Amino acid sequence: MSYLADVGTLARKDLLLELRSRDTLPAMLLFVVSTLVVFSFALPADASDAAAYGLLWVAIVFTAILGLTRAFAAERDQRVLDGLVLAPCDRSAIWLGKGIAVLAFLALAEVVALPAFALFFEPVSWELVAAVVLADGGLAAVGTLLAAMAAASRARELLLPLLFLPLAIPIVVGGVGASIADDPGRYLGFLVLYDLIFAILSWASFEYVVTE
C-alpha cells in the first residue's frame, strides 16, 4: 500500500502542477488540432482511408513527444530530480507516477483529437478508440523512461525524439492496422503485447536509468 500511495502522490503532484501552470496540455491540444486541420487541407479528396489514419497516428506520436519533452521539466528546472531519487521510496514509483500523469495528458489530448478527426476525415470506430487507448499505454510507458534518460542531457530536445521514434514505430503500425484491417483483433493483440513487454522492461530498468 505504501508503494501505491507513493505512486498516487507523485502522479497527483504532476497533475496539480499542470492545472496551475498549464504549460503542457494546451500546447498538446493546439498541436494535434492544428496538425489535423493542416492535413485536412493537404490531403486530396480521393485519398485512401489508410492515408487519413496514418496521418492521425503521426499526429498522435508527435503530440506525445511534445508532452514527453516537458515530462521532467519541473524536476529539471527546480533541481528536485535528485531529491526524488534519494527519497525513501521505490524508484520505480517515480516512473509509474510520472507515466500515469503522461497517460492522463495523452488521453485528454485525444478526447479532442478524435472528434476533430471525425469532423475532418472519417467516423471514429470502436477499433480506432481501442487502438488509441492501448497505444497511449505504450507511449506513456516507453516515453517516460526515455524522457528520464534525456532529462540529464543538454541536447534533450534532440535526444528524446531520436530514442523515442524508433520504439514508437510498432505502435503506429499496430494502430493503423487496427484502424483499417479486416481483422483488427490481431493488431490490438499486438498492441497489448507491446504494452506488457515495454511496461515491464521500463518498470524494471527505471532505477538503473535514474541512478546513472
List the helices and strands and how they pair.
Layout: H1 2-21, H2 25-42, H3 49-69, H4 73-78, H5 81-86, H6 92-120, H7 126-151, H8 156-180, H9 184-211
Helix pairs in contact: 1-6, 2-3, 2-6, 3-6, 3-7, 3-8, 6-7, 6-9, 7-8, 7-9, 8-9
Explain this structure.
- This protein has one domain.
- The protein has nine helices and no strands.
- The two termini are about 30 Å apart.
- The model has no long low-confidence stretch (mean pLDDT about 85).
- Determine the N-to-C terminus distance: 28 Å
Rg measurement, Å: 17 Å
The tally of domains stands at 1
Q: Uncertain segments of ≥5 residues (pLDDT<50)?
A: none
What is the helical fraction, as a range of percent? over 70%
**What is the mean predicted local confidence, pLDDT?**
85
Tally of separate helices: 9
**Secondary-structure class:** mainly alpha
Strand content: under 5%
Order of helices and strands: HHHHHHHHH
Largest sheet: none
Descriptive labels:
212 residues; mainly alpha; 9 helices; globular
Structure, briefly:
With 212 residues, the protein is an all-alpha fold. Helices cover 84% and strands 0% of the residues. Helix 3 (49-69) runs antiparallel to helix 6 (92-120).
